[in-house]
Write a structure and sequence with these properties.
Elements: H1 2-10, H2 15-33, H3 40-53, H4 73-78, H5 87-113, H6 115-119, H7 123-147, H8 151-166, H9 170-181, H10 190-196, H11 200-214, H12 218-221, H13 224-243, H14 256-263, H15 273-296, H16 304-325, H17 337-345, H18 352-366, H19 370-373, H20 375-383, H21 386-403, H22 409-412
Helix pairs in contact: 2-5, 2-7, 5-7, 5-8, 5-17, 7-17, 7-18, 8-9, 8-16, 9-11, 15-16, 16-17, 16-21, 17-21, 18-21
Length: 418
């Protein structure tokens, strides 16, 4: 015990990360004790990896029931290492992998946004940041662990990609993006940004790696015809998934298009499919123009180092926009992690009303624990779509921080902002 206390005293910069790790491991023990150690989604990936190893079909398998494989054939290959172990053991390994990824992603988020905190071992600020961010997004990464999903894995890969991007390691950046697009097509949101910033080499490498990864299943199926059949079945699953999620006025739709329609008189117009399509197209265009304006804000007078830092902010907002633009599960709102850290690190620069808005955004993002509130109340809260509203509030705060040049403090000063 004395040695442990001594370790904490000498390495107190790690306390926040230790708490985060313990929360994930204690949750693992709780799941096993309460017979809830299911990882239902991971079981889908595990079965798909087993099947592709045996050159079997991946899609529309009746025995799978509700838990069917909806991802690309290439993504099934990613999970082959887990098939080396019995499913019970593989579940533990995947939980531990996600735990390591969560802790590493927290560390990398701080290092990207305020590297001085890591370089100068500002333990007090780091621990406050980690624990505060953990409280805000815990609901999402704990559900991710419980279900064994891939959203946090995607977030981690996006953070790694951003790290390579600002270090101008174009090939590494491109291959990471290529890997992610075969898990979920959210990665396409980065393409317009790369085009606007004339990252032609990165786009070319991205395309090359996408083609290479696309062909990987051929190794297991042995023929182009069978491989293309699997891709055709995957596209069919995507179409079914999208057709099931087009209810613009549905409570379960947490996209910005749905929220605006449900909370404004637009709801009276979108019953017509043509008007609904035009509305969504105009809204998407408007978001694109606003984001373009955001990326150009204060950039003309920025130094090269400041421009690199702005790239981190741009890409962080882009990641946060994913669940607002694509109909997906509530867990995808863990993509708010980077902007949560941006706001926490610069919290003292916010005006009083902005601090209130930020806190409301944090609550909307992470306070709807059904285990604490009860399933019925939690569902009612979910129907109000507080998640996307919270995300919009947090993005607004990041816009304000950039507009008022507070973000440049992270580049120009070596002192903590939080």
């Amino acid at each position: 015990m004395n040695n442990f206390k001594s370790y904490l005293k000498q390495n107190n910069v790690n306390i926040g990360f230790i708490v985060l790790t313990l929360i994930c491991l204690i949750f693992l023990c709780g799941e096993i004790i309460n017979d809830r150690f299911w990882l239902s989604d991971f079981e889908v990936y595990y079965k798909a990896a087993s099947r592709i190893l045996q050159s079997q079909n991946l899609y529309k398998i009746a025995e799978d029931g509700h838990y069917i494989f909806k991802y690309s054939p290439t993504s099934a290959i990613y999970f082959i290492p887990f098939v080396l172990f019995p499913f019970g053991v593989a579940k533990v390994f995947y939980w531990l992998l996600l735990t390591a990824i969560i802790v590493k992603a927290f560390f990398m988020s701080i290092k990207l946004i305020k590297p001085e905190l890591i370089i100068y071992q500002k333990s007090k600020f780091i621990n406050i940041l980690v624990i505060s961010a953990m409280l805000i997004i815990a609901i999402h990464f704990l559900r991710e662990l419980h279900l064994g999903q891939v959203n946090y894995l995607l977030l981690f890969l996006y953070i790694v990609a951003i790290n390579f991007y600002i270090k101008q390691k174009g090939i590494a950046f491109s291959i990471i993006l290529a890997i992610t697009i075969f898990i979920k097509p959210f990665t396409l949101i980065f393409v317009p940004y790369l085009i606007l910033n004339k990252k032609h080499k990165e786009l070319l490498w991205f395309l090359i790696f996408v083609v290479g990864l696309f062909l990987l299943p051929f190794i297991f199926y042995g023929s182009i015809e069978t491989t293309m059949e699997q891709y055709s079945l995957w596209l069919s699953e995507l179409q079914i998934e999208l057709s099931n999620k087009q209810g613009l006025l549905d409570y379960s739709n947490h996209t910005i298009a749905s929220v605006m329609a449900r909370y404004t008189p637009i709801r009276l117009l979108v019953g017509n499919s043509v008007i609904s399509f035009i509305y969504q197209l105009l809204l998407l265009s408007g978001i694109g123009f606003v984001f373009l304006w955001f990326t150009r804000m204060n950039s003309k007078t920025a130094s090269l180092e400041q421009q690199k830092y702005y790239s981190v902010i741009d890409l962080s907002v882009l990641v946060a926009l994913i669940p607002l633009l694509a109909f997906t599960s509530e867990n995808a709102f863990l993509f708010s992690q980077l902007i949560v850290f941006i706001i926490l690190i610069h919290f003292k620069f916010l005006k009083q009303y902005e601090k209130i808005i930020a806190i409301v955004g944090f609550i909307f993002i992470g306070a709807n624990f059904s285990e604490l509130l009860g399933g019925e109340l939690s569902q009612k809260i979910d129907n109000f779509s507080l998640l996307p509203i919270g995300m919009i509030l947090l993005i607004y705060i990041v816009f304000s921080l950039r507009k008022n040049k507070h973000l440049l403090v992270s580049v120009n000063k070596k002192t903590p902002c939080f």
